[in-house]
Amino acid sequence: MTEINITELTLYCKAFSGLTVEREAILKEIAEELTPHLSRVTDAFYTELDKIDKAKPFLNGKSEGLKKTHEAWLKGLFTNDFDDEYAKFLYHVGDVHVKIELPVEFMAGAMTQIQRNLTPILFELFGNDPERLIAIMEAIIAALGFSLQIMQESYQSSTLVTELDKFLKITGMSRILFNNLAKAYSL
Ligand code: HEM
After folding, report:
1. Which of 96, 120, 127, 157 qualifies as a cystine partner to 2, CB 3.0-4.6 A?
2. Can you tell me which atom of ligand 1 is nearest the CA of 144?
């Protein structure tokens, strides 16, 4: 993992996405009722991905295994604590996708699909109480946004490291010289 301050990153992403302690509690409250329905979201996710040409090379023969991984991650949204350990896991998940060169826009696209496919289920289960439904939707949007931000942070750091490595290779400059120049430049 690149050098990052995971506590700082977690706090920053929580503030940005609106993932408060109260919303984390809501996610856990609905876990039992919602979990049996989550396989529908995963199935819809892969059906939609299958229609995207650019996604095909990443799914070839792997869809069944990936479905299990994806569903486990989705269930985890409603059971895990959103602490530094979990943020580290999300950062690692981002990194796994960087390594396979999954285009970065797939992350935001995937979150949009998940949110859209969850919406009718939430209405089905909690639609009789609009105030609660809104609170639940806010909590889910916050948790998905938080996850997306952490995964994308990983993309950003990994891309920078890759670009710098390429620059050093092309120019023949040592990492020490680069660090010294960067330090001098910022003075
Ligand atoms: C919401 C967005 C996504 C989440 C949360 C997610 C989650 C995960 C997780 C938890 C893993 C396992 C990481 C590990 O090995 O520890 C994984 C691997 C993988 N994901 Fe995703 N994923 C997302 C989007 C996608 C999309 C859109 C695609 C392809 C179109 C994709 C393709 C893959 C592939 C091919 C692997 C296996 C990488 C390997 O081990 O070779 N993922 N994903």
Report:
1. 157
2. 1
Collect all residues with Cβ–Cβ distance below 8 Å to 13 and sequence separation of at least 6: 19, 87, 146, 149, 150, 153
Question: Distance (Å, rounded) from C-alpha 88 to C-alpha 14?
Answer: 14
Task: Give tens-digit pLDDT for 120-133.
Answer: 999 999 999 999 99
Atom of ligand 1 nearest to the CA of 49: 30
Burial class of residue 63 in the structure, from the number of CB atoms within 10 Å of its CB (0-12 exposed, 13-18 middle, 19+ buried): middle
Give the H/E segment covering residue 119: helix 105-126
In this structure, the residue with its CA closest to atom 13 of ligand 1 is 93
pLDDT tens per residue, range 27-59: 999 999 999 999 999 999 999 999 999 999 999
